[in-house]
Every structure is written in C-alpha cells, then in structure tokens.
Amino acid sequence: SPETDSKDEL
Amino acid sequence: MNIFRLAGDMTHLASVLVLLLKIHTIKSCAGVSLKTQELYVIVFATRYLDIFTSFVSIYNSLMKLIFLGSSFSIVWYMRYHKAVHRTYDREQDTFRHWFLMLPCILLALLIHEKFTFFEVMWTFSLYLEAVAILPQLVLLQRTRNIDNLTGQYIFLLGGYRGFYILNWIYRYFTEPHYVHWITWISGLVQTLLYADFFYYYFLSWKNNKKLQLPA
C-alpha cells in the first residue's frame, strides 16, 4: 500500500 | 533498500558522527550552528513519531534511534556541557530559526498526502529538514574560516540528500506507482541549498586551500 512504502525511508 | 539509499543513510550517519567526534573529542563546537542542530532535533522528533507504532525493519528502527539520540546529544552538549558551550559563538549564530518553522507548519497543513496528524507532522519534518541547514550556512558566511571537521560535516550532510535523490529516481523506475512529489521536491530544494557550499568546498579541496565562503 502507498502508506507503508513512503514511510520505509529515514 | 537500494545502494543509493544505503549510501545516503551511511553518509548521513557519517555526518552526525563527524560532528559528535568533533564535539566529544576536542570539546569544541566552534563554527557549528546550535540553531541548525535544534531544528534537526525537531525534524527527527516529528519524522519518527511512528517509531513505536510502525515497524519496518531492525535497520530502520536502529537508524531512527541513532539519529534521534545523536541530534539530542549534540544539542545537549552545545547547551549544557560547560567546556563545549564556551566555544559556541552565540553572537554570530543569530538566525531566527523559529521563523523557519512557521512557514513549514503552514505549508504542511496546506500541502500533504493525507490530512492526518502523523502525515502532517511527517510532511512538516520534510519541509523543515529542507531549510534546517540555513542557520549553519549563514553562520559559515560570518565566521569565514571553517575548520575541516565542520566543513566535512556540512559536506556529508549535503551529500546524503543527494544520494537520496538518486534513490528516488531508482525507485521511480523500478517500483510501479512509487510517486512522492512532496518528498522529491523538498529533497531537491534541500540539496540545492548546498550548491554554493559544494562549489566552494570543491574549490578549496582542488586548490588545497582553507575553505572560505565569500562574505
């Protein structure tokens, strides 16, 4: 889901 | 994870380690802007609000703790450690950094991916990080002569977002619907703010001269 992939970066 | 993002994170880690090394070993923060360091504390505090609620990987959580811990300890050293605090040039480090936060919070309230508390805080931290280096660059212009460690710190700090831009390009082409304009534009603005510093840093390295930014 777009939610997680944008938050997998520092 | 890709090589560009790993390089970016390692460069970012190296920048905070260089600064901690300088402050901890030679007990000096001459030429370092406390304002920029305080902005970075806010950047990480608002960026990593989900540190306990969303787990991505050991690496991700570990790095978040390192960035939070290092930014807090740098501010603590510069504010409360007697020997270090004495080397802080308060008269020169006068950038009104709280005024930087206001436009960032307003912009985050206007432009975000989702209107939730976490998303707005996360977006705020992106905008704030883009401009957090400004007090440090202004201080650099004033203090003229820059010691090597401070120069290296800024160079690495500028370089990490440059690697992230390569990471975003790579992910755009390899992951379908990986599109995050807010992240990309603020990351680009952040890297561009270092452009003149990189230019003078390269010149000083090429001519093997002390790094000096024009007044």
List keywords for this structure.
heterodimer; A: 10 residues; mainly alpha; rod-shaped; B: 215 residues; 10 helices; 72% helix; globular
Secondary structure: elements and pairs:
The complex is a heterodimer of chains A (10) and B (215).
Chain A: H1 2-6
Chain B: H1 3-25, H2 34-47, H3 58-80, H4 82-86, H5 98-110, H6 117-131, H7 134-143, H8 148-174, H9 181-193, H10 195-206
Helix pairs in contact in B: 1-3, 1-8, 2-3, 2-6, 5-6, 6-9, 8-9
Residues in helix, % of chain B:
over 70%
What overall form of chain A do the CA principal axes indicate? Answer: rod-shaped
The termini of chain B sit apart by 41 Å
Quote the beta fraction of chain B: under 5%
Could you tell me how far the N terminus lies from the C terminus of chain A, measured between alpha carbons in angstroms? 18 Å
Task: Tell me the helix content of chain A.
Answer: 40-55%
SS-derived structural category of chain B: mainly alpha
> Main β-sheet of chain B, in a few words?
none
Number of E-state strands of chain B:
0
- By DSSP (H or I, 4+ residues per run), the number of helices of chain A equals 1
The most extensive interface, with participating residues per chain, is: A-B, 8 and 21 residues
Q: Which runs of chain B of at least 5 residues are low in confidence (pLDDT < 50)?
A: none
Largest sheet of chain A: none
- As residue ranges, the low-confidence spans of chain A are none
Keywords (chain B): Endoplasmic reticulum, ER-Golgi transport, Membrane, Protein transport, Receptor, Transmembrane, Transmembrane helix, Transport
Transmembrane segments (chain B): 55-77, 98-115, 121-140, 152-170, 182-202
Family (chain B): Belongs to the ERD2 family.
Subcellular location (chain B): Endoplasmic reticulum membrane
